[in-house]
From TrEMBL:
Name used for this protein in its record: Flavorubredoxin
Domain Flavodoxin-like: from-to ranges: 246-383
Species the sequence originates in: Thermosipho japonicus
PROSITE patterns: FLAVODOXIN_LIKE
SUPFAM superfamilies noted in UniProt: Flavoproteins, Metallo-hydrolase/oxidoreductase
A single MF term (Gene Ontology): electron transfer activity
């Protein structure tokens, strides 16, 4: 599919309507796209990133439709293979030089065997003229990997942001998706991919905000006609502000822990606290990640299994720790049979979180009146912190 973005700037990417998983981890309820863009200057032609290698045929057909015979520069904003995978082919077929930063060049050498002689390395803020169009490169490390950068097309005020501001959303209307759907999918993408880099992200967003941007063209999902929409959303997500929201992640074999989390969530709701409850056994981890973006509190509910946490809970706890949400409070509830040490285990597994641990509630077997009292106390503690 070829789509005109503005005069002499075209989308030449590929749509993956039915891809179900990304990184063998993240579910894709709406498929995805791999966006690549052709920029035709009066003197030179540049390509911004390429596409997932399995979409080579579609990508090459797009270039054929535009009658592209020669590409002078292929800009590599990010070395991950879903964007860089066909750079070697573009060099070979169209005689392009690869333009990127030093770190990305090193990654391209190791990850896809691009030769040093085919690369032009650029510095942060450097510009490259295509004749009547000028590209400016802005380094935005850790907008996924350490080498990530964005490219700004000065005359048309388009930011090619690669994974930053991306969304996994397959659509034929590259610019016409409703704001609500786009923001929902962008939040999911932020939660899964960008949230662990929330702190370094602040500097990058400041850098991007200094540009006069009319469109943002990411490397997954639709182009933003209203850049403010996504920039303001990112600013809110990366800020230290949390919402009055409690995410409860639980697993339960015989419903003892389930009864505890259900009581806790009822009590929290009665007190005016918003609750997002996930039974993690078959949960979509993207949904959990979204809920972690702004929640003030995370509650882990697990039974004791083989002297530790239930293995399914271990997976969820590992995910929470790796995603580094801005959660302020943490609580643990669970049921046990005879003994073990799951509280200490959970605490050590969540060492990335800078959250205050509230008094854990554990009960032997099925929760009784004393257990309910403790849960009521925990609900009060959480509500007080959320509502003040
Ligand atoms: C496979 C298995 C292993 C267990 N291992 C332990 C254990 O090491 N220590 C313990 O105190 N209880 C252990 N239990 C007992 C459970 O923790 C207990 O039955 C608990 O009430 C289950 O809570 P649930 O109904 O939320 O699953 C084990 C139970 C099962 C089924």
């Amino acid at each position: 599919m070829v789509r005109k973005i503005v005069e002499n700037v075209y989308f030449v990417g590929a749509i993956d309507w039915d891809r179900e998983l990304f990184d063998e981890l993240v579910p894709l309820p709406n498929g995805t796209t791999y966006n690549s863009y052709i920029i035709k200057g009066t003197e030179k032609i540049a390509l911004i990133d390429t596409v997932e290698p399995r979409k080579e045929e579609e990508f090459m057909n797009n270039l054929k439709k535009l009658n592209i015979q020669k590409i002078d520069y292929v800009i590599s904003n990010h070395a991950e293979q879903d964007h860089s995978g066909l750079i070697g082919k573009v060099v070979e077929k169209f005689g392009a030089k690869v333009v990127t930063n030093k770190k990305c060049a090193d990654f391209l050498k190791t990850h896809i065997h691009i030769k040093g002689e085919d690369v032009i390395t650029i510095e942060d803020g450097q510009e490259l003229s295509l004749g009547d169009k000028t590209l400016k490169f802005i380094f935005t490390p850790w907008t996924h990997w350490p080498e990530t950068m964005v490219t700004y097309l000065k005359e048309d005020k388009i930011l090619f942001s690669c994974d930053l501001f991306g969304s996994h959303l397959a659509t034929s209307e590259i610019e016409q998706v409703g704001d609500e759907k786009l923001l929902e999918m962008a939040k999911r993408y932020y939660a899964e991919i960008m949230m662990p880099f929330r702190v370094p992200m602040k500097k990058n967003i400041e850098k991007v905000e200094m540009l006069d941007i009319e469109k943002i063209a990411p490397s997954h999902g639709p182009v933003y006609k209203n850049p403010k929409l996504i920039i303001e959303a990112y600013k809110k997500w990366i800020s230290n502000e949390v919402e009055n929201e409690v995410v409860i992640l639980y697993v339960s074999m015989h419903e003892s822990t389930k009864k505890m989390v259900e009581y806790l969530s009822e009590s929290l709701m009665d007190k005016g606290v918003k609750v997002k409850l996930h039974n993690i056994v078959n949960a979509d981890i993207g949904e959990i990640a979204i809920d972690l973006v702004e929640a003030s509190t995370v509650v882990i509910g697990t039974p004791m299994v083989l002297t530790g946490v239930h293995p399914i809970a271990a997976g969820a706890i590992y995910l929470v720790n790796a995603l580094r949400p801005k959660t302020k409070y943490l609580a643990i509830v669970g049921s046990y049979g005879w003994g073990g040490k799951f509280i200490d285990e959970i605490k050590s597994m969540l060492s990335n979180l800078k959250a205050e641990l509230l008094e854990p509630v554990t009960v032997k077997g099925l929760v009784d009146s004393e257990g309910y009292e403790k849960l009521e106390h925990l609900a009060k503690e959480i509500a007080e912190r959320n509502l003040n």
